[in-house]
Structure formats: structure tokens, C-alpha cells
Amino acid sequence: MEEFIKKELAESARLKGEMIEETVSSIADAAEVIITALKKGGKVILFGNGGSAADAQHIACELIGKFKKVRGALPAIALTTDTSVLTALSNDFGFDFSFSRQVEALANPNDVLVAISTSGMSSNIIEAVKVGKEKGCKSISLTGKTGYRLANLVDVPIYVPSNVTPRIQEAHITIGHIICALVEEAFS
Questions:
Q1: Cα–Cα distances in Å, from 46 out to 5, 65, 188?
Q2: Residue 77's closest CA among 59, 92, 90?
Q3: DSSP class of 120
Q4: Region 2-186: CATH code
Q5: Percent of all residues in the chain with a pLDDT value above 70, rounded to a whole number
């Protein structure tokens, strides 16, 4: 058991080291897009499926509440929290439209979408980004190494250089925390 634990921790650490070379400028760009949107009176709209849904909620919570500092609340919403809306849209329009209808209803041109998908292939995530683009929103994606389908649609793609879902998810929440720290500093 201990050898397995050591191996998992080492793999996670190795990936984070690789990210220093590959993702720093994209993370900075994403933070800048969010800061600019918030300064213009926009909000951050986050969404994802499964573990990525939990990450969307986590990041929204950090922005609305606090990350490390007590400061004013920042407008953010995770589209994954209203089960009535999610199930009605999935039932009435199909799962592919579970987020895009919400973006259609809630997004404004000053808003920024944060689309989280380990594969970058989730149709409901891609549809939401397309609707956001039509509405004039900026967009950021968090994907794994092969997330090109989603990443090609957004203003700021952030690729985690891995194909292993747990490692990608660990990296996504680290990226989310870094962005929250940068945003928080800009508004403190």
C-alpha cells in the first residue's frame, strides 16, 4: 500500500512540475480575462460534468466567499448546482443542452465562461461555449492533454499535459486555486 501511495504522490508531483513549463502563461492569461470581466461588471460562469462539476462549484465558492483574504464577494455561479434546471433541460432538450440553455438565459457580454472538461470532448460543455461566444462572452477551458475540441473554441485554453483523469482533476483544482489567488489579489 505504501509503495502505491508513494507512486501516486510522485506522479502528481511530476505532473505539476511539467505544468510549470507548459501552463504558466495560460493561467496568467485566464486570471487576466477574469479580472477584466469582473472590473467591467461581469461575472464568472463555471460548468463541468462529474468531478469537473465539483471543481466548478469549488471555484465559484472561493470567488463568492473568500480564498485566503476577507474581501468583497465576487460574482460567480456554477451551472451545476440547480438540479431542477439540469434535469428539466436534459429531459426536455437533451443532455447536450444542459448548460447551453443556462448560458443563453444568464450570460451577458461582460461575463467569462470557465468550461472544465478532462477530455475536452463533452458535447454539453462545447454547446455552452458556442452559445457564450454568440453572446459575446470570453471563455476559458481547463482540459487534459487531448482537449483540443473544446480548447479550439475558447479564448484561453489551459491544457494539463496528461491523459490520466485523476491527475488532470488534481491539476485543475490547483489551477483554479492559483487563479482565485490572482483574482483575489486584484480585488483586495
A1: 32, 15, 22
A2: 59
A3: S
A4: 3.40.50.10490
A5: 100
